[in-house]
Design goal:
Elements lengths: L6 H28 L4 H9 L18 H12 L3 H21 L2 H12 L4 E5 L15 E5 L2 E12 L6 E12 L5 E9 L5 E6 L10 E12 L3 E2 L5 H37 L1 E2 L2 E2 L4 H29 L5 H25 L10 H9 L9 H11 L3
Parallel strand pairs: 1-4
Antiparallel strand pairs: 2-3, 3-7, 4-5, 5-8, 6-7, 9-10
Helix pairs in contact: 1-3, 3-4, 3-6, 4-5, 4-6, 6-7, 6-8, 6-9, 7-8, 8-9, 8-10
This protein binds flavin-adenine dinucleotide.
Length: 382
Amino acid sequence: MDLELTPEQEEFRKIVRAFAEEVVAPRAEAMDRAEELDPDVLDLMAGIGLFGLPFPEDVGGMGADYLTLCLAVEELARVDSSVAITLEAAVSLGAMPIWRFGDSEQHRRWLRPLAAGERLAAFGLTEPGGGSDAGSLRTRAALDGDEWVIDGTKAFITNAGLDRSGLVTVAAVTGERPDGRGEITTIIVPAGAPGYRVGRKYRKVGWHASDTRELVFEGCRVPVANTLGERGSGLANFLRTLEEGRIAVAALATGLCQGCVDECTRYARERQAFGQPIARFQAVAFKIADMEVRAHTSRLAWLRAAAKLDAGQPFSREAAIAKLHASEAAVASAREAVQVHGGYGFIEEFPVARFYRDAKILEIGEGTSEVMRILIARSLGL
Ligand SMILES: Cc1cc2nc3c(=O)[nH]c(=O)nc-3n(C[C@H](O)[C@H](O)[C@H](O)COP(=O)(O)OP(=O)(O)OC[C@H]3O[C@@H](n4cnc5c(N)ncnc54)[C@H](O)[C@@H]3O)c2cc1C
């Protein structure tokens, strides 16, 4: 399988890198401190088409592939993981299920403003009682005439509380299957729907500028036309969406690894100790060499998973391998990047301090490392 980028993808990577360096990086520390994204950054991201990348042009997208979306996520994460996860959650988790499982009317009504970046979508699966065990949902939806009435709470939902948050896709139990397990259906809940309340922002260890909230549904009413895909297909559709999303999370982790390499290379050449740049000490240079190996192998892993997805081949195993490897690589590289910076690594003005706080969630979100190991072991017949 050819993992070389096409000339168009190479060109696109350069455009997003320049955007990340010129627009995002100078604002990253302030956005982290304010725990808020600068809306101008979102407007500018929309302006270069990032929110519509993997969708066809006839629904308002850019007509690129999933791999190209991951390239954008990687380049943004090289300087700011909060901005990168906002894009990943909006497109891969939020809008993608509407594209993949929605009908043409839902594409017209919901997907177009998402692809334009005028609105952002959120993905409402996790609940306070559990995320890994996605089948054990407590949120219920019952039909009342031609409306769903939804009751329940979702936890840790990204992108639901911004001014431009447009909708959340909610996984809810809508009945019982013949085997006694819950029938799960996906329902689109627009911002402002009656009975839908967006809760407080969590105080997080990292991803400070990314919006993460609890969502409460109390007798929340939406038309039955907001059902996404077949009734009862919700769990399968959410799991498929998560599988794809793992590739983008691996790309995000790769970007963080690359950011560590670049920040440390620059710092180690400048910082002097014992009369010479610290880069001359093998103990320091080897740490950066190890970071480079992690960035390189993580990139190969997500590229392969994305290439398989775009080729219509099975990709679940490769996605799990990429997500597990890249997220653990990001945590290790961020820890070492702080070490290379010495005391300054513990000071917030230096990006590696933020990278250190931002890395840990990569081993948890969109499937924990333990869940990834379960999936990989299962793929070996264990
Ligand atoms: C910042 C942030 C953003 C998020 N964004 C979203 C979002 O937009 N939408 C959304 O739906 N969710 C989102 N999540 C939720 C995230 O996907 C879950 O936190 C994650 O899936 C883990 O679920 P949990 O927190 O309930 O942990 P649990 O499932 O309770 O797991 C706790 C521990 O037990 C382990 N464990 C669980 N089951 C097993 C098992 N069978 N074998 C071995 N170990 C196991 C886990 O690996 C973990 O170490 C977000 C979370 C955070 C923190």
